[in-house]
Specification:
The termini are close together. This protein has 2 domains: 143 residues, Rossmann fold; 72 residues, no CATH class. Helix 1 runs parallel beside helix 7. By secondary structure, the chain is an alpha/beta fold. It has 9 helices and 5 strands, in the order βαβαβαββαααααα. The chain is globular, with a radius of gyration of 17 Å.
Length: 226
């Protein structure tokens, strides 16, 4: 059974992997090393603001002797320039799912330029990490003020699929959640609030409501079990 390394953008995704995803993967029989690594910026800090930062972070992982399965957990919403993804401006399809598939293909190509590596699985979250918080807001936001929970439930009811809640500059999931909290004089804290909401929701519900996310998780399980 191979090890699994997940490259993430920041502390929230790291906590999500440690608190939610790893226990689920272990429950599915993955008794191996599983750990997140935050993408390091060249000037300090973490995040996916430049393709080179991702390459610098992933390079030593690709050279590990045991050849772990390596994947990414990065937001579609945040990839908006050639600096972040070479060829970004040439991807012109308006179909979101096809667009993300093409972006993942480009990411695969960029990583293979570092070193031919058969155990890399590119994953871009549609539209961003906060999408997962919408899986069952009546349960996930249970500990928040009733008005906040009601507003999030109302927001989700306006879409056939929560993965369709869009990634326009003002329509991204995190921006929508932030505005709801602000309207009730609360501040949404991604690090302290997001993973708590997902934990209350339950990973099984998230997988049920987010088919793209579920497909990625199943790919990881299959690859690690190779």
């Amino acid at each position: 059974m191979k090890a699994l390394i997940i490259l993430v953008e920041g502390e929230t995704e790291q906590e999500f992997v440690n608190r939610i995803l790893i226990p689920y993967l272990v429950s599915r029989g993955l008794n191996t090393e599983i750990r997140p690594i935050m993408i390091e910026k060249s000037g300090g800090g973490h995040g996916y603001s430049n393709i080179q930062h991702l390459k610098n972070t992933i390079r030593p992982v690709l050279n590990k002797a045991d050849e772990p399965v390596v994947t990414t957990l990065i937001d579609h919403y945040g990839i908006n320039s050639e600096r972040k993804l070479p060829g970004y401006t040439t991807i012109t399809t308006t179909d979101t799912e096809e667009r993300i598939h093409q972006m993942e293909d480009v990411l695969q190509t960029e990583i293979q330029k570092i070193k031919p590596y058969r155990f890399f699985i590119p994953y871009i979250q549609r539209h961003e990490f906060e999408t997962l918080l919408f899986s069952n807001p009546e349960v996930g936001f249970e500990l928040e003020y009733d008005r906040i929970k009601e507003d999030v439930v109302k927001l989700c009811s306006g879409f056939d699929s929560i993965e369709d809640i869009n990634c326009t500059p003002e329509g991204a999931p995190s921006k929508r959640i932030g505005r709801i909290y602000e309207s009730h004089k609360r501040k949404y804290s991604k690090v302290s609030d997001a993973v708590d909401v997902i934990e209350l929701t339950g990973i099984e519900t998230v997988l049920e409501k987010c088919p793209r996310f579920k497909n990625w998780v199943e790919k990881l399980i299959a690859a690690v079990n190779q």
